[in-house]
Design goal:
single chain, 68% helix, mainly alpha, Amino acid/polyamine transporter I, globular, 19 helices, 2 strands, disordered N terminus, 526 residues
Length: 526
């Protein structure tokens, strides 16, 4: 019998003892035929739907216009595209094992479920709580970025609205859109993603046709060289750090890993989820390399580009776009950074709701979160709960940091520091997922056991991503931009994950049924 199938007698009438027997002996519990478990909408989205739901989470325009100036100005300088190249290679290797596991287990739990099957329920539960926290703060983070740029745009027309109100408007609108059928989210995200990618490709084409593109930018060696201090006047730059550049390069992909979370809602998940993963990570990689390389055409030297990135990062892309691609390109990009932030926040909202739904239906969060809408089959209660959390984070920043300085309060603190808080968890959990995949296939040699897919690739991914997390902690004071409370971000993350692990041990002895099913509910009837 496959370890992904339940034995007879565990249908809609399954009781606690059956759950323990199934999850304990056979590794997973297939809930496809159970009537007592609320399920997401079957076959709601196809390959393109999964792509729109996940790639939008990576927010190509936000990744480029927010992160590239930092990689250039405070990281590798001219080697910024090389940093994106290295990140592409590492994440493709990570995807090899991730795809193998996605073909093995179809579940809305994603990281949480995969870690549970490899490193055990205790670490899986801790990672599950950590993942909910990470994606939850990402929505609030993007609300800060959205509010900052929309505030600037409105001010240009003589309209002044405080950034907290704009951020809460985004959170409320996302709540309305995600309450309904997941296909509505797909349609909204598709429009946003296609428009921003098309405009950035137009920008790239204009830059490359203009010429003066430095070949050194894609030399992999330069990914491991920090920007050297020097120059004067328009070319004076401060020294950069390798760790800063690599961290922000990896940060630009956060979102692509969400594809398995939509497995229960996709058509043919065993094929479409892996395809979506490979298309997104490789497609984004090529796109990021080209789009981080292109702006150099608009500057006389690499040092002048780094100077601009350090002194006026908001216009790092817009200035060459205006001068070379045309004022209309710069103008459209200035609007798309607003819609792109919104779409990215919406994608993270969807994923957070599915993590909370997965934990809720297993009793690790309030069980109400594990219910789906009777008509839309959306995780509507989990979605509304995430809206409340995101709104409270926005309100908290508005109360404790103020609302009169959008640059510091909305952009640097709410957007920047909340993103850092979430990325710490995502990169750490991704490294644990890779280790879990290796262990899972070692324990189940009867499953697909390819030396590269389930052995070497997961180990390489584990080591490289753990190293990036190490670099992140080494540069946390820089990323905190002088805000002392930034030093608490890592400990808070560790406390949530550690608390989840402790809770798992408590369940192991106090509620065996709940413990045994943790991270093991899958849906193979698709």
């Amino acid at each position: 019998m496959s370890d992904t199938q339940a034995p007879p007698g565990t249908g809609g009438e399954a009781a606690g003892d059956d759950v323990i027997h199934t999850a304990g002996m056979f590794g997973s519990l297939d809930v496809s035929e159970r009537d007592d478990v609320h399920k997401l909408k079957k076959h709601a989205v196809g390959l393109y739907g999964v792509l729109f739901l996940t790639v939008t989470g990576s927010a190509p325009i936000s990744a480029m216009m927010f992160n590239t100036p930092i990689v250039v100005g405070y990281g590798q300088g001219v080697g910024a595209p090389a940093a994106f190249l290295v990140a592409t290679v590492v994440l493709v290797i990570f995807s090899v094992g991730y795809v193998a596991m996605a073909r093995e287990k179809t579940t809305a739990g994603g990281f949480y479920s995969y870690i549970s099957h490899g490193l055990g329920r205790e670490v899986g539960i801790g990672a599950g709580y950590g993942s909910v926290l990470a994606y939850s703060v990402f929505e609030a983070s993007l609300a800060g970025g959205f509010a900052y740029f929309l505030n600037l745009k409105l001010a240009a027309f003589g309209v002044n609205i405080g950034w907290p109100y704009l951020a809460l408007f985004m959170v409320a609108l996302i709540s309305v859109l995600t309450y309904f059928d997941v296909r509505l989210s797909t349609a909204v995200l598709a429009v946003g993603l296609i428009s921003e990618v098309v405009m950035l490709l137009i920008f790239d084409g204009a830059m490359f046709l203009h010429g003066h593109i430095p070949a050194a930018a894609i030399n992999p060696v330069n990914a491991f060289k920090g920007l050297a201090a020097g120059g004067s006047g328009d070319t004076k730059v401060a020294a950069g750090a390798i760790g800063i550049g690599l961290f922000f390069a990896f940060w630009s992909w956060v979102g692509f890993e969400m594809a398995p979370n939509y497995g229960e809602e996709s058509k043919n998940p065993k094929k479409n989820v892996p395809r979506a993963l490979y298309i997104s990570v490789i497609g984004l990689g090529i796109f990021y390399i080209l789009t981080s390389w292109a702006p150099f055409a608009g500057y006389p030297t690499a040092n002048s580009a780094a100077h601009m990135a350090q002194t006026d990062p908001a216009n790092y892309y817009l200035t060459p776009a205006h001068a070379i691609a045309g004022p209309w390109v710069a103008s459209i990009l200035s609007y798309l950074i607003i819609t792109g932030s919104f779409a990215c926040g919406m994608a993270f909202h969807n994923t957070t709701a599915r993590y909370a739904y997965s934990l809720g239906r297993e009793g690790l969060l309030p069980r109400a979160l594990g219910r789906t809408h009777h008509r839309y089959k959306s995780p509507h209660i989990a979605s509304m709960a995430q809206t409340v959390v995101a709104a409270l984070i926005v309100i908290g920043f508005a109360v404790f940091t103020g609302s009169n300085d959008p640059t510091s309060q909305a952009y640097v603190q709410l957007y920047g520091l909340m993103a850092v808080m979430g990325v710490i968890i995502i990169l750490a959990v991704q490294s644990l997922v890779s280790l879990s995949i290796f262990i899972y296939f070692e324990r189940h040699p009867q499953r697909e056991a390819h030396w590269w897919k389930t052995r070497i690739a997961p180990l390489i991914a584990f080591v490289t991503q753990a190293f990036v997390v190490y670099l992140l902690f080494g540069n946390l004071s820089f990323l905190g931009a002088g805000y002392s409370y930034a030093n608490w971000l890592g400990p808070i993350d560790a406390l949530v994950i550690g608390g989840g692990i402790v809770f798992a041990f408590y369940l192991k002895y106090s509620n065996r049924e709940k413990y045994e099913s943790a991270g093991r509910l899958i849906n193979e009837g698709l």
